[in-house]
Fold this protein.
Amino acid sequence: MPATHSIDKNHQFARCFECNKVPAMAPFHWLALACKDLANAPLLSLLYGLIFTLIPATIMWLVYQSGTHLVILPAAVAFALIGPAFAAGLYDVAWELEKGHKPTLIHSLKSMFRNPAGEWGFAVLLMVIMIVWMRLAALIHALYPNVPNPTFEQLSAFLALGSIVGGILLVCVFAISAFTPQIMMERRVDIMTAVISSMHAVKENFGAMVVWCGILVFLVMVGFATGTAGFIVIMPLLAYASWHGYIAVIKTKVPRHYE
């Protein structure tokens, strides 16, 4: 008889987790739950918020001190590498509150090493996409009119191509990152499974994802409008809301609720 080989479904690569369909206004509910998490763990939330705030503040300070924008790329690369790790710490805080536990700094720090290969792989993926964008932006900049005060008509080709390329990359980054970090942290799966599942969930919940993207853009603008000080509260809120979005959208064998 020919030998048969059983497949361990727990170790399949590039799977796609099923997702729920949520209402378009669901992100506002996620944000309300995030406010509740912030109230239940204020000190830990603000500590992580302070760390996230120092990063854009440092970038702005370096640009101001150096008088050049060349420092933005290396600073942004550093943020892409360490950002997902600190976000995992905030996801752990929300997860502990969901389970009725008291979140601690030590426990949240340990969560950064639950799936190190996946988290670092995701950070490198974001870094590669960012570098591609910088290269494309340099090429697009060649279309910038070589005149002192260009008119809108002269700028039209530059603005149109830059908007199209930037928009496509923005949509791609949002689709692959909406639920990927949460999936990898909780389920410890490979990066392709997490990315494919995230993209599928975004496609199936297009309306809610448009609203969620709008909330992200608005709050980030508020953060910069406050001289990055607002990020102390905004970043924990966004991380907690992302976790509740993950709970609501990605299906699990046992239904879970946290209100």
